[in-house]
Amino acid sequence: MTLLSTLNDDMKTAMRAKDKERLAVIRMLKASIQNEEIKVGHVLNDDEELTILSREMKQRRDSLAEFENAGRDDLSEKVKVEIAIVEEYLPAQLSDDEIREIVKQAIAKTGAASVKEFGKVMGVVMPQVKGKADGNQVNAIVKELLQ
Predict the structure, then answer these.
(1) 80 shares a domain with 61
(2) Could you report the per-residue pLDDT of 3-31, keeping only the tens digit for each?
(3) 21 & 74 share domain
(4) Buried b (16+ CB within 10 A) or exposed e, 49-71
(5) 77-112 as b/e, with b when 16 or more CB fall inside 10 Å?
(6) Distance CA 17, CA 65 (A)
(7) For the chain, how are helix, strand and coil distributed in percent, rounded to 5?
(8) Domain housing 113
(9) Domain containing 138 — which CATH number?
(10) What is the model's pLDDT at position 115?
(11) Which residues have CB under 8 Å from 101's CB, separation 6+?
(12) How many structural domains does the chain have?
């Protein structure tokens, strides 16, 4: 079952349950996927759908950070609910230990020895953790292990 059909089924369920927050987030995800399909001119594959979900999650995490810094608890609570709903459609997230192991393998593969070679390591790691880990979390672990 494709992500779009899953979203359609979940949208119907949310409508029946009169769950307005969930319905709004599902509609937003569905619109993002459909807009991307129109933009690229073909039905998206799983990897492309995952990219869109990751982008939506990143936008929400960035918004959450901004709202918390501004002291807007009302908006940050709303975004936390949206994050929880988007997470349901993403693959299971990797633990710090799993990310650390992937980063160690990438460092060995690239032969990186200093923070100057950060980009090489990130280039190897990010495709492996796509949608399964937050980029900021991976970034921090790579910097830590390269020092």
Answers:
(1) yes
(2) 889 999 999 999 999 999 999 999 999 99
(3) yes
(4) bbebbbebbeebbebbeebeeee
(5) ebbeebbebbeebeeeebeeeebbebbeebbeebeb
(6) 30
(7) 80, 0, 20
(8) 96-146
(9) 1.10.10.410
(10) 80
(11) none
(12) 2
DSSP characters for 115-126? GGGHHHHHHHHH
- What tokens were used for 37? 């399909």
Span 24-44, pLDDT tens digits: 999 999 999 999 999 999 998
pTM listed for this prediction: 0.79
Phi, psi of 34 (to 5 degrees): -65, -40
By C-alpha distance, which of 131, 29, 21 is closest to 79? 21
Q: Rounded distance, CA 4 to CA 22, Å?
A: 15
